[in-house]
Write a structure and sequence with these properties.
- With about 140 residues, the protein is mostly beta strands.
- The protein is built from two helices and nine strands.
- The strands form two sheets. A five-stranded antiparallel beta sheet has the order 2-3-8-7-6, with no helix packed on it. Strands 1-9-4-5 form a four-stranded antiparallel beta sheet.
- It is globular and about 65 Å long.
- It starts with a helix and ends with a strand.
């Protein structure tokens, strides 16, 4: 019996080594958005800034079976930090003579072939001069 045990483990290892295990496939993309890329939406008292990016990887399969996540990439103390969206933080708004702080929330929406990034301020205003170039990481995960 002791002689057969090593043969059993050898056969089991060979069997599992030949099996192909499939799982979700994850892809990441880094996207830069410049200050000039943001547009202003202002209708019916609703105001925000947005940018629409063509993203063919978000197809009908990804919309139904997959997952799309977006993070803001920031450099803090010389190291890269990712903040999953939606992300809310404080910025300085107003002008030089009367600056004040306001919350800024960055969120995203997905539709087939399109990624929309949205910036909303806590006071309902828009501040094009407060915008900076942003870098985002978009991660897609297939179900299979």
């Amino acid at each position: 019996m002791k002689k057969l045990l090593p043969l059993f483990f050898l056969a089991a290892t060979a069997l599992f080594a030949s099996c192909e295990i499939e799982g979700p496939e994850m892809r990441s993309y880094e996207i830069g958005v410049e200050k000039r890329d943001w547009l202003t939406y202002n209708e019916g008292g609703v105001r925000y800034q947005y940018t629409e990016l063509s993203f063919p990887e978000i197809d009908s399969y990804m919309m139904e079976e997959g997952l799309v996540e977006v993070s803001l990439i920031a450099v803090n103390g010389g190291r890269e930090v990712q903040h999953p969206l939606p992300y809310t933080f404080t910025v300085i708004a107003g002008d030089r003579l009367e600056p004040y702080t306001v919350t800024e929330t960055i969120r995203y929406e997905v539709s087939r072939g399109l990624l929309t990034l949205v910036i909303e301020y806590g006071d309902g205003e828009v501040y094009p001069n407060a915008l900076l170039p942003y870098t985002f990481r978009v991660t897609t995960i297939d179900r299979y």
